[in-house]
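Forgive a beginner's question, but would it be possible to get a protein, spelled out as residues, together with the matching structure tokens, please?
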Amino acid sequence: MRRGVGDAISLFNGRDGEWAARIDAIGRGWCSAALVKQSRPQAPEPDLWLVFAPIKRARVDFLAEKATELGVSGLWPMFTRRTVVTRVNADRLRANAIEAAEQSERLSVPEVFEPVTLPEIRARWPGERRVILCDETGKGAPIAAALAEMPADSPYAVVTGPEGGFAEGELDALGDLPFVTRVTLGPRVLRADTAALAALACFQAQVGDWRTGTIARSIP
């Protein structure tokens, strides 16, 4: 990063806000810094997971990056019957999430869960976490209307399927659970990554932290 001893940096750990600091020593593979003062307090963020069927490498990198910028707190890859990708590099997802968190100046990094199958997710799902299930069949409620009925003080997850959509029975296996709301994202066929980001944007606008009045600025 072309930083040297004495240079000013900003640090965060996801708990104690952002701190101004100065580098006081650098070694091979390590760096230490002295804290100067807190520059931003830790702000509350929506407890929002993205559960997604893995897609091709370049697009899953893009998805992890943009979902982090959109404020997710967890990324959970889910293998379905039609998932083409058979392996997910969780360390690579974490690296993309860290870089996106730094660039977007959020003060936390999403947790990256190890990939599991859809039946495993269904069996392990915490019942208090509401699910917004993106239903590509068009049988769900319009997402804006569905979100308008949901409370803001609840943990959530947006769930999206693979390229080609969920297999027969998979949507019902999830959609029949009492904490799941099936939603539609409109009349056009969306790529898997587009659908995930569209749903996250709708959530943040309707239920999440886009309602705070903070003015966003663009980043390079």
About this structure: Residues 51 and 159 are 5 Å apart (CA to CA). DSSP finds six helices and eleven strands in the chain.
